[in-house]
Amino acid sequence: MKWDYRAIFRMPSRKDILLAVALFVGYMIYAIIMGEILGYFGVVSPGTVDFNSMDAMKLITSIFSLMGEEFIKFIPFMFFLRVIYKFSNNRKLSVIISVALVMVMFAFLHAYNPIMLIFALFIQGFGSIFEFYGYIKTKNIWISYLTHILTDEFIFIIMLLGFA
Fold first, then answer.
1. pLDDT at position 156 over 90
2. Residue 125 confidence class, pLDDT cut points 50, 70, 90
3. What residue ranges do the domains of the chain occupy?
4. Which of 11, 89, 112, 164 could bond to 159 as cystine, CB 3.0-4.6 Å?
5. pLDDT tens track for 21-67
């Protein structure tokens, strides 16, 4: 069986990298605003990351685990996209439904209790629309990965510096 990895992995262009950076900034703005809204209603993150466990090694290991997270989103997305398109014959509908399903699934992976589920649904789940947009716009998983890694590494660095 022959597989052309270039179907999803291509060298990003300068325009693609700028898109990933813009999506990172967009996500950070979204997360701050959504965090404030959720906080107003008493839905806050219980602090699932232990600040004492944060170190430079976490920055390095997350480089690999974040690609795994991208595949955890990408593989079901492609599956749902194909199945829904097969039955609906409507590309836009299949993209919208597939993205929505995977965003909810992604939120469940980040939730530890019912309150955390609400927080994860709005922050990680719906927030992953920025990464999906990067992939859908470029058809290159490196762009969604770059957006994701910029986001997580930025948050880790802020925590390491003691600002969180």
1. no
2. very high
3. 12-41+64-160
4. 164
5. 999 999 999 999 999 999 999 988 766 566 666 777 887 888 899 99
